Amino acid sequence: MKKVFEKIISGIITCSGFLTSVVILLIVVFLFSEGLGLFSQKTIEEGYTLVVNKSNPVEELNAKQIKEVFDEDVTNWEEVGGKPEPIMVFRFEDMQKYFSEEELGPNYENATACINSLVEKNPGIVAFVPEEFAGGDGFCGKRLKDHTISAGEVFGGNEWFPTATPAAQFGFMPLILGTVWVTVFAILFALPFGLSVAIYMSEVSSARMRAILKPVIELLNGIPSVVYGFFGLIVVVPLLQDVFGLPVGESGLAGAIVLAIMALPTIITVSQDAMQNCPRSQREASLALGASKWQTIYKVVMPYSISGITSAVVLGIGRAFGETMAVLMVTGNAAVIPLSITDPLRTIPATIAAELGEAPAGGPHYQSLFLLGVVLFFITLIINSSVEYISSKNK
Amino acid sequence: MDNKNISVNNHARKMLAQNVAFTTFRILSGVIVTILFIILAFIIIKGASVLNWDFITTPPTDGMKGGGIWPAIVGTFYLMVGSALFAFPLGIMSGIYMNEYASHGKIVKFIRMMTNNLAGIPSIVFGLFGMSLFVNFFGFGDSILAGSLTLGLLALPLVIRTTEEALKAIPNSFREGSLALGATKLQTIWHVILPMGMPNIITGLILALGRVSGETAPILFTCAAYFLPQLPESVFDQCMALPYHLYVLATSGTDMDKQIPIAYGTALVLVIIILFVNLLANALRNYFQNKLKTN
Question: GO cellular component annotations, sorted alphabetically (chain B) (predicted)?
Answer without folding.
Answer: plasma membrane
